[in-house]
Structures are given as C-alpha cells and as structure tokens.
Write a structure and sequence with these properties.
single chain; 183 residues; mainly alpha; 5 helices; 0% strand; elongated
Length: 183
C-alpha cells in the first residue's frame, strides 16, 4: 500500500471506488440516451421539440435531420464521456491513496479542461441543433438562435476551479518531489 494511502480515510476511498465504477456507466448511458433520442422515430419527436428550449415554431424531423442531429449531439456528449473517463482515473488514484502526485494533478486538469470545453460548446451545439431541425422547413420558417444560461456559466466556472486546482496540485507535487530529492 502507498505511504500516502492514509491521506484518504477509508470511507472516502470506498466512495472513490464506487464513484469510479459509476462513471463509465454514466458515460455509456449519456451516449446511449443521446443516440436513442435522435435515432428512434416519432416517439421522441416531442422530446426533441422540448429540447429546443423557447423555440415554438415548426421543426421538421427527417432521417437526414436525425443523423445530423445525432452526430452533432453525440460529439458533444463524447466530450462529457471523456471527462467522466478522466474522472474515473482520478478517483481510482484517490482510492489508492495517490493524492499528492504530479499525475493526479494532470488528471484533474484534464477533467477540468474537458468540462470547460463541454460547457463552452453547449450554446453552439444548441444553436446547431435548432438550425438542423428547422433547415428543412419552408423559407421563413427556419431558425437560428443562441442562448447562454446560468447552468452553462456555472459549469464553466466550476470547470475553471477544477482546472486551476489541478495545476496547483501538480505544482505542489512537483515541489514536494524536488524537496524529497534535496533532503
């Protein structure tokens, strides 16, 4: 067992292992639900309409629209899945007691960067999705919108905090390693 293993109490290590087991399941569920909601005909059309936010106009859902919408949204959710995969690796390191190490800081930074990218792309993906579902509409019925909500801003700010914390952790681990070599 690692000497730093005592840094994380048993309950927290157990929690980290459980959360690490849940993250790939969550990532797969997010990807699967996104694909399902776009590729399954008619039964999800109302869900697609509700995902358009305040847009109340006509949406045209053709097979090509389904594929394009699925592609754009799956790419976006894939970024979240990558963030969750990074979180899994980070949680496993925490559970093993590998807390104050350079690699742990790097994983925390990777998680923060992926979440920040995911948050930054939310308004663009929503705009692209609205354009996709209205592109086949008659002239004058097409729509392009842009919105930025408090959820996106909050996620971006939390992502920045995670990113900066990862940088600080990696720098502190580097300094501690240098100090151990001197002493």
């Amino acid at each position: 067992m690692n000497a730093a293993a005592d840094v994380i109490p048993r309950v927290s290590a157990r929690l980290c292992r459980v959360a690490a087991a849940v993250t790939p399941v969550a990532a797969a569920a997010f990807l699967s639900f996104t694909a399902y909601s776009w590729l399954m005909p008619s039964e999800n059309d109302e869900r697609l309409r509700s995902s358009m936010g305040h847009y109340l106009g006509l949406i045209t859902v053709t097979p090509l629209v389904r594929l394009a919408g699925c592609g754009v949204n799956l790419l976006h959710v894939a970024i979240l899945a990558f963030a969750l995969w990074s979180a899994r690796a980070l949680l496993l390191r925490f559970a093993a007691g590998e807390v104050f190490e350079i690699e742990t800081g790097a994983l925390l930074r990777r998680f923060g960067k992926a979440l920040l990218l995911y948050a930054a792309l939310i308004p663009l993906v929503n705009s692209a999705t609205l354009l996709i579902v209205t592109l086949a509409n008659p002239a004058g019925e097409r729509a392009l919108g842009f919105g930025l909500g408090s959820e996106e801003i909050t996620l971006a700010l939390v992502s920045v905090v995670i990113l900066v914390t990862g940088s600080v952790l990696a720098d502190a681990a580097r300094m501690a390693a240098d100090h151990r070599q001197i002493v």
